[in-house]
Amino acid sequence: MTLILPVKHAWLAFQKRKEECFMRNLANRALHIAEGLGASYVDVRVMERTTEGIEVKNGRVEGVASSTSAGFNVRVIVNGAWGFASSARMDDAEVERIARQAVQIARASALVAGKPVQLSPLATQRGFYRTPMERDPFTVPLDQKVRLLLDADAAMRNVQGVTLTSSDMEYSREHKVFVSSEGSEVEQELFDTGAAISASAVDPSSSEIQTRSYPNSFGRQAGTTGYEFVEA
Description:
Layout: H1 4-36, E1 41-57, E2 60-78, E3 81-87, H2 92-110, E4 126-130, H3 142-157, E5 162-180, E6 185-202, E7 209-214, E8 221-223, H4 228-231
Parallel strand pairs: 4-6
Antiparallel strand pairs: 1-2, 1-5, 2-3, 5-6, 6-7, 6-8
Helix pairs in contact: 1-2
């Protein structure tokens, strides 16, 4: 285990660097294409969001799920009018198509636009922001996260009268890249982590059902932080 975890974390770090490089390259490619087509202003946003969730019910793991969504958009000014296009495909041909589409829409808009768009002066912005955290939930071993939920579920089932229990956890990472023709380049990595437990009991004399959940009355409590939020 002491060998496997460092290797896994190194691989995840390598994949993350590849993802960051790919997103920056895509953004800059779209920007240069739009500029070459005559746009006086261009900005490009690229986003990838990964979400993982674990659900436990009545002492059993009901599901472990992972999903990823990604996309980008190109916004331009041509002849004093805005143009915008976006896509969930991330290949070179699609980048060129979307950049061209944004410029075409702007040219068409300029034919009927009123007063030309004029942007307020803005200093070039460059920087990187990452959600402050102690533990990245994506690097915490899956069995450790499942065990935490199973332990919480077992504690609820030990209470007399409780007949239904559930516990769940969900965490997400959203990586964003923004570039503009004015020289700005901003990158963000935002995390959202949360969990919840719920227990139901039935009164045998009246068949009345009462349900209590924690920490919220419904859904889960989440914060822009790491796995330490769940452990607290």
